[in-house]
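Researcher: Let's try something more involved. This one mixes different molecule types, so please make sure each is placed in the same coordinate frame as the others.
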Amino acid sequence: MSDSATPAGRESWERLPARLRPRAIELPGAGRMRLIETTLLVLVGVLLATATLNDVVRQTHVNGRLIADMRTWRAYTGHDYHNLSIEQELLGPTSSQREVICGNMSPGPPKTRIQLCLAIWGPVVDGRRAVHGGWYLRAKAEDDVRGLRYGCFGPASRGICPR
Amino acid sequence: MTVAAQSERAPARPRFEWLTPALAWLLALLLVLATAEIVIDGAAGHTALIPKSPQITGWLHGVGEHLGYRVFLIAILVMTCAYAALLALTRHAGQELISKRSALIVIGALHAAVFAGPILLSTDVFSYIAYARMGVEHAINPYLHGPAAIAGDPVYEYVGHDWRHVATAYGPLYTLLSYPLAPLGVKGALWGMKLEALFASAGTLALTWRCARSRGFDPVWAILALGANPLYVIYGLGGAHNDLIMLVAMMAAVSLTLPAGPSSRDGDTWSRSAGHSWRREAAAAAWVVAGALVKATVAVLLPFMIISRRRLAPILGALAALIIGALVGYAAFGVHGIDLVAALNRDAAFVSTDSFATEIAHLFGKPGVFPIDHDLLKALLVLIVAHLMWRTWRGYDWVAAAGWTLLAISVTSTWLLAWYILWPLPLAVMARDRRLLAATLALQALFILHQISPLLAPVE
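Model: All components are placed in one shared frame. Result:
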């Protein structure tokens, strides 16, 4: 840092009490401040590292559940399709762990055919979860899922579908 | 002194000292190979990691397979470990381990590989092109409308779904810089953007070299720490992000505040004896404003620069640049072109799953970030900036203070993307407070660690 104030400028700063005056370089006494800062930095670092690890574990569990959901869809429909879409918030917040998995009813690019959507929740048993009904979705339906679904079936249809 | 005493005090030479250069080259090779793997597989076509793009890497077709999470994450982890080991090794072994020429070869190879490859990990560059084409080809103000206004344009299909209705948040200087690329077509503009990012990166590295040398740090180590950084290479340069243009303006500003030649790392004798001219200080502040007219974040350097100088020159330089920029922005885009605060406020409300705020919310059992959290984070940021300004007033290194502020913005932002954690890195490699570099690299490591869940439970 340069002590670049002009002499006149320096005089004006000298009217301030010593502890408020600007300095060109830090006093050696700044070590105490440095210690406090370093302690805070370490604490923040520990918090961020814990939060990151927690999120990695959480996301790994979510991925494990989604893998089970996709297996469930394939077993239920008998189609060995891999381009399936997953909606995690349609049936409640993500924490409810209630997912909707949709996939084409016939071969073709994703969402270009009539889709079958399954409402899935519950614990993972033998790599799968329980299907609680579902509905059909017309081809190329992207946004207004609630408005475009039809043919609801199973327990999911009660109170969820139609609209 | 006796012979015995002399031999006791002689520095111990490691038994396998001859291995160190070979190990350094091996680590550099790993960095380049992992980068090449990402580029070659990325060139195979669109995946979740490679945005849909016009074909610009046909010559690499058939060499690799579609880039999936598994290969990408393994490659980025290899890069991260190699980078960390290379930095530790060169720091420990000193300047003689890697020469300037060797460092330039490694960084050049990384840059060439990424430049020759596809756009990686982000659709932002297509938004840049869309905004340019809106202004030049369709006479639509990109500060008033999103790319959806040009839905028939060939670039539209490549713009990220979330950004199709969003007007540009970038500064008027960047938008004007992108305008000459608009008539080149989507492919031509894409290469133009990649070239801009490449030149900006080269400029940032050259200025980092100069600044590090001027402050008494090893410039070879400084450019390795920046130019071989995995996030810088893969996310920053790979996505052709305009953050690199902001960084070159930032480094031009810092460079102007330093003397040209090498100087001592300890103390501030260099700056007292330099006798900086009024013009250089004014120009430095003007460069900060120019950077802010590309991307507003860099404006945080200005208060620290002004506080550390305590002269009129940077204030006048900043004001002059701001007036010129505002006039040009107003003439080109109207009042919306200069209302960067509104754009920043809009972006500050976004939430990304990678943000530390979201991670902490999850840690405490909350589903995500709430409006009250935004306010708390803003208040925390204000406190940190106030503390750093006070420290700068009392003699703390202003470059480090500005770097801490950029880092604090990344940590407190609810909308965190990989290239945001690059902002403090050029300052960190030449800041006298080495805690800044440690914190920046640690934060980058946490960001990369946060990406690895698909490796632990791979979703098809």
